[in-house]
Amino acid sequence: MFRGFYTVASGMVAQQRRTELLTNNMANANTPGFKADQSVVRSFPDMLLSRIGSTNIPVQKNLNLKTAKQVGAVNTGVYLQETIPQFIQGQIRETELTTDLALVDGAMPADPATGVAGAIFFRLENGEGQELYTRNGNLTLDADGYLVNPQGLYVLSETGERIQLQNDNFSVTPDGRIMQEDGEVARIGISFANNPELLLKQDNGLFSTGENGNLPSAYGEEGVTFSMQQGFLEGSTVDPSKTMTELLTAYRAFEANQKILQAYDRSMEKAVNEVGRVN
């Protein structure tokens, strides 16, 4: 009976976390470059139950032989094992703003060990000098003329330097070169992740490598092709209708587990108050 409580409770916790994940996806349906999270739910190892008994052997000493008959397997619950961002190309939409940039994937070689396709990102730098990565090309110029993302993180060039411009009157070539009246200013830094599933997801659509060093440059990377479009933004990979359906499914699963938990509770109450009563 108590094992049933634990099994049902684990299912409720897993569905609650899945609901939170899907809600976050829905909230970022219009966030440029956002990669929707996918959940992986797994079950705990099954337990094999056996019924212990005994058999009397009619011999002179009347032997009693212990026996064990298999009853079957029982599941011990589920858990949300991991969440994996969906690293696919989002829809490209036009904004006509010179500071908006969209990365358009070309050929992305797959990791030979895992079969996961690689991914490219804009290079950013936070206030502590750490490199971060994003697909959100909704950029702007700060008060000092540096190219920054919506959170104020500096956009880095191919050589790892901050990009400072005279004004917002500039153009970006498909291969990432920023051009102004005096010629080329810098080339926007783009990094390549051989296995993007190893990246650590942070707030505001940012990714980091943790303590594994910085990602290599995507320029010149063998087999990697891409282009950059100015005046466009990459949309999120969230499918609102599918996400709403999955949210409803997760809610119904949570509700079903809740009903089972209530049934267990009533059974325990009856066992304590009625079955165990001494007349």
UniProtKB/TrEMBL annotation:
Does the record bear Transferase in its keywords?
Answer: no
- According to the UniProt entry, the coiled-coil residues are none
Question: Residue ranges of the Flagellar basal body rod protein N-terminal domain?
Answer: 5-35
Broad class of where this protein is predominantly found: other
Ranges for domain Flagellar hook protein FlgE/F/G-like D1 come to 117-178
Keywords assigned by UniProt, alphabetized: Bacterial flagellum, Cell projection, Cilium, Flagellum
For this protein, the record's SUPFAM superfamilies field holds: Flagellar hook protein flgE (SSF117143)
Q: Which InterPro entries match?
A: Flag_bb_rod_N, Flagellar_basal_body_rod_CS, Flagellar_FlgE/F/G, Flg_bb/hook_C_dom, FlgE/F/G-like, LlgE_F_G-like_D1
Location in or out of the cell: Bacterial flagellum basal body
Instruction: Cite the Flagellar basal-body/hook protein C-terminal domain residue spans from the record.
Output: 229-273
The family note in this entry says: Belongs to the flagella basal body rod proteins family.
Q: Which NCBIfam families match?
A: FlgEFG_subfam
**Record protein name field:** Flagellar hook-basal body protein
